[in-house]
Description:
Blueprint lengths: L1 H25 L21 E4 L4 H12 L4 H14 L20 E7 L4 E8 L5 H11 L4 E3 H10 L10 H12 L11 H5 L3 H9 L3 E6 L5 E7 L20 E4 L3 E7 L1 H5 L3 H10 L4 H15 L6 E2 L2 E2 L3 E7 L4 E7 L3 E5 L5 E4 L1 E4 L3
Helix pairs in contact: 2-3, 3-4, 10-11
Amino acid sequence: MLHSIRKWKRRDFLRNGFLATAGSVLGFKAINPGIAAPAIRTNKFKPVAISSGNGLAATEKAMEIVLNGGDCLDAAVAGVKIQEDDPDDTSVGYGGLPNERGIVQLDASVMYGPTHRAGAVAVLENIRYASEVAKLVMERTKRVLVVGKGAFEFARMHGFKEENLLTERARQLWQYWVENRSRFDDFLTPLEDIENIPEQLKYHLEHGGTINLNVLDTSRNLGGCTTTSGLAFKMPGRVGDSPIIGAGLYVDNEYGAAGSTGRGEANLQTCASFLVVEEMGRGSSPTDACLSVCRRIIERTRVSYLWRDGKPAFNVNFYAINRNGDFGSASILSGTRYAVNDGNGSRFVDAAYLYERE
Ligand code: GLY
């Protein structure tokens, strides 16, 4: 963090120096570009890391970093990278389930409270650490969202390794999905396989994936990251909520941080993570803010295929911290747990919910 502040100052100095020189040559007065310095807080504060149910190790890592004086966003990215590396997490990074053509396409975003800046990538192929690339978009460009080939080239420019992210397990699950998609297509599956839907695939399709991690550090600064391989077997180019600031992630250093996993389209249609943070800003507890946005999503969901027997046939989960270090989570459907570490080790906690899962 100190390193990046030093870089900021150097850059401001260079820019002001350049404007002053150009001004005297061209005969105009240099105007201060008015770059606001990041809000730096230094008092020691009790840190918290909150994450989705696949984030137990991530919260542990994030807490270790902030307890050693590290920065909230560095901690968030270091935490989620554990899942991006994990071939058994079929919802994130390496080992993530591919799109309908068998290509792994990643989405990720970061947001940093002290500067209120954000970075994101979408439809990123062949680069494992979408979270780190998103952070570099924030730090090393004037942009917020970079997609597709441009995101890949940006990552390569920064030295990221190009690699095939489709593991053998993810390929098998994809093949199974293709072969069982329709009676009317070209493919056949051995009969015994049809009854025997791989448990991992069933679990993934019912529960989804993605990791969101939000961190409050000892300087009382907030940072968050959401990273995913997105909806399993999605149409090529589909982008969910994870890389969209305000939908899959939002951080406001004065109010709190929130992120989401689950059906991305529901969050895109309601600016859901932004709304969670706004509700906390109006005084709601993190859990109440998450529940309130779950209710809003339900009230606005009018598409028939998303309802079954009067109940939602999809799920969305939120994870939130306010600036005082209170945390909470809620889902539309029961059975979701989240991971949290408030300095006493990482643990799972059951999320609040609106409806019992069938
Ligand atoms: N929430 C992740 C996605 O919908 O892609």
